[in-house]
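hi support,

uploading two proteins for the ticket. first:
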Amino acid sequence: MTQDLRIGVVGAGAMGADHIRRIESRITGAHVAAVVETDPGRAESAALAAPDSRPFARIEDAIADDAIDAVLVAVPGAAHLPVLLPALEAGLPILCEKPLTPDSATSLRVLEAEQKLDRPHIQVGFMRRFDPEYARLRELIASGDAGELLMLHCAHRNPSVTESYVQEMLINDSVVHEFDVVPWLAGSAVKSVEVRHSRRNPLAPERLR
């Protein structure tokens, strides 16, 4: 008899809580065995959604206790590096919410740590290429049945954001979805990027353009 995959969810905020509920209620063959969360209120809420899970304050503690077989990283991007490096050192498979890290230097550190292992261990949380409608669009473009692809027009809208959302996250946390899916759809690498700001929406927070 095979044992369920024991997942450690790091971060029990909005995204982490959603992952916890999904793992516990919508998939088989896995369960949330540990929740790594420093906020007592969030940890308590997570325990209600995953009653068989154990709380930990640090990913290192969950690893040392042999409590998990895989890691799901759902803390903000700036906190990814101190989670990813110990998880990789332990040889654990990882699903990491985007961005991998907020800058290229720390992302390179993660890649270098992963490349010391026998195979890739990280998947970043880009889900659009797994969406059936995106998959059908990719098949249509690749087949050429509707003619050659000339242009893609993509729209990504965040109706609202949290107080912690800053201007750089427009690219790192939002447009990054297009960076993933557009080359996959078009079968061609992105060659250049230009960012233009329109007039600021007066309903948007003043810190954002």
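and the second one:
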Amino acid sequence: MSRPASVSPGRRAALAALAGVVLALAGCDGAPPERELQYRATPPVAAPAAYRFAVHPLHNPKLLSAAYQPLLDHLNGRLDGVRLELEASRDYAAYEAKIRARGPEFLLPNPWQAIQANAAGYRVIAMAGDAADFRGLIVVRKDGPVVSPADLRGQTVAYPSPTALAACVMPQYFLHRAGLDINRDIRNAYVGSQQSAIMNVHLGRAAAAGTWPAAWRLFQRDHPQEAAGLKVQWETPPLMNNAVMVRDDVPPAVADAVRRLLLELADAPGGPAILAGMATARFHAADDASYDKVRDYIAAFEREVRPVEVQP
């Protein structure tokens, strides 16, 4: 067996010095060196939790933002650690798909959509507007020939969507009870938005349009020249107004804070102007049971006229 090579005294001293440096850097017990502490003038601030607030397509996205972004700005200025983001949808079908997918945390749906959202795990926390203001309107030209419902036989009637409760379902039920077979006697055109439905009458593409008071008021405000040639020929009895809903996994404290701020909006600084921009009187207390009358109405409509979700 060969003997290990001898190490000179000078080399041993160099190795010992190197080992001392390593131990000094690592600590006497071999632990890694501590990181240098860093100090901040203020503690780091966590980004607020973002929640989507999806309003059903009352208007095109640009008009929807103009009407509802002031409301979200008001809420965001008073909520702690939470930020609401306004979300528009391309059309009613796209909005209803979001409800089924449980996408947005907060919703402002029409009453029929509220029933669908309830089944998907959302609950009602408020009602947007007075119940008496939720009724269907049928708009015609002032210089047109439509005087009675019978005058619509063979004509086109425009609506935003088959599932627009006040602007389609309620006008169709009105015409049904007036003696028209809405599946055969008239041509139903679903044109995507309230404004488009009314504009179709102005342009002569439809003899009448289904809409509702809030959309008609906004149309008169934003398009006074076109509105001057139109009139509301009939209106339906009222029902419940649009709901404000929250998904069932949103923290109760957040839902309660949003609900409180909505109910207080009419008396808050700047609140009346925000409500006026949405053509909404105020927010009212409501819950899931408040919409039972809508369930009964829909059941009667579907028995007598058509399924809400199926275009006739």
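thanks. also noticed: The two ends are 101 Å apart (CA to CA).
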